[in-house]
Amino acid sequence: MISGPDWSQKLSTEIGKAVIGQDAVVERLLVALLANGHVLLEGMPGLAKTLLVKSLGSALGVQFERIQFTPDLLPSDVVGTMIFQPKNGEFSVHHGPIFANLVLADEINRAPAKVQSALLEAMQERQVTIGGNTHPLPRPFFVMATQNPVEQEGTYPLPEAQTDRFLFKLIVDYPTAEEESSMMQRWGQVTKQPALLAVSNGEELLALRPQVDAVHVAPAVQGYILALVRATRALAEAEGSAKRYLTFGASPRASLALYQAGKALAWLRGQDFLTPALVQEIATDVLRHRIGLTYEAEAEEITADKIIAQVIERTPVPAT
To answer: 3-state SS of 161-187?
Structure first.
């Protein structure tokens, strides 16, 4: 039986052949795999977001498909369509690229609302409807989407209903000077491109999930998760002299996400129980896309991360 640290190490080492740095982001992606959740990656162009997801698919040994989202993309380009066959006079189903284990929705905010909504059923129900018939998606199934935080022209902001379906929103930052220097030394030659091996597979991933489910969560820690999530709603409902920085707080999906992702992170770290420290560590990635900032907050340059940090600081930590 493979342990969490061993599984994490072999995948991280293989991904590291193609991507230098971003260790924390890689760990969160592995947590999402174990927790059966989707991920939204946000970062400037050139930070290897696409390469990171593609390398994850190669190391995991699953079917990978990339969808480049553009303003003229149609829902049928994502889920598939019915094609008429002149030989027999019947329609047959043509599956779209969504029928893969790991789907990269590249620049997801460039597609219009119809295409974005085509992903909702796939992300939530793990199925799509083509020609009035429902088709199950492969197992395991993940959507990992990327978006540029500064580009405004030709983009369509994701609706709250869709962002809420992502387990994490991860911020991909610039590499350090040492990491960037290593990139130049390693890939300064055009012919020197890394070849990744499949060190795991979808069946192994599915077999690991019962071990994640077995991670113990004490009632006090479960109460702490609820307190964090409900504190964001209290901020959104503040009245009187209290200044409102949130238009809405986190949904119940946030509580489930903290619970499931916390157990997965504990298992990856070799622990058989969830601690408040791990909940705090993962809370920002779970909550930052699930709360809505008011105009006052944006005017005062108060970010979602700052508000979540305040919530963590003010919420009493249970004794464990």
So the answer is: HHHCCEEEEEECCCCCHHHHHHHHHHH
Torsion sign (Cα): 238, 302, 157, 58? negative
Hey, what are 138's tokens? 């492969």
> Phi and psi at residue 254, in whole multiples of 5°?
-65, -40
Dump pLDDT digits (tens) for 111-127: 888 887 778 778 888 88
Instruction: Enumerate the H helices of the chain as residue ranges.
Output: 4-15, 23-35, 49-60, 75-79, 113-125, 160-163, 177-187, 202-213, 219-236, 252-268, 276-287, 295-299, 304-314
Q: Which residue shows structure tokens 């599984």?
A: 7
Confidence band of 154 (pLDDT split at 50, 70, 90): low
215-224 per-position pLDDT tens digit: 999 999 999 9
What class has domain 4-187+199-205?
alpha beta
* CATH of range 214-314; options 1.10.8.80, 3.40.50.300, 2.40.50.100, 1.10.630.10: 1.10.8.80
Q: Which pair of structure tokens corresponds to residue 75?
A: 């829902």
